[in-house]
Amino acid sequence: MRRLNRQQLFKWSLIFAGWTLFAFFYASQALFINSYRENRLIWWRVLTWDLVFCYLWFLLTPVVLRLTFTTNLFPIESRAPTIITIRESISNRAETAATFLLRRLFF
60-85: per-residue pLDDT in tens? Predict the structure, then answer.
């Protein structure tokens, strides 16, 4: 097993922190949207599930990066980084649908 040097450890710490911040943001959005409903969500449950989902994505990050940089299947285009591609849009919708369904099952 290969050890991580300081630069790699710093990079993966930033990626982990980014996924954690994304989970907090996503949880805050869910709680804010749901605050107007009669049956309110419990904040720690929402945060727990969002952290679980984001940490699963954190674990998949090396696979995604490997596919991005070793194959030409999912290239990162530097020409237009602000334009959302169809692939990203579909994956965002799939993640939203999966999160919605799992929340309906467990809440």
Answer: 988 887 877 777 666 666 555 455 56
Residue-level pLDDT at 86: 60
- Structural contact between residues 36 and 42, judged by C-beta atoms closer than 8 angstroms: no
pTM for the model = 0.62
Q: Sorting pLDDT into bands at 50, 70 and 90, what band is 53? A: very high
CA distances, 14 to each of 21, 32, 39, 88 (Å): 10, 27, 36, 22
Judge contact between 49 and 106, C-beta under 8 A: yes
The domain locations on the chain are: 6-76
DSSP string covering the chain, please? -PPP-HHHHHHHHHHHHHHHHHHHHHHHHHHHHHTTSSSPPPHHHHHHHHHHHHHHHHHHHHHHHHHHHHSSSS---SS-TTSPPHHHHHHHHHHHHHHHHHHHHH-
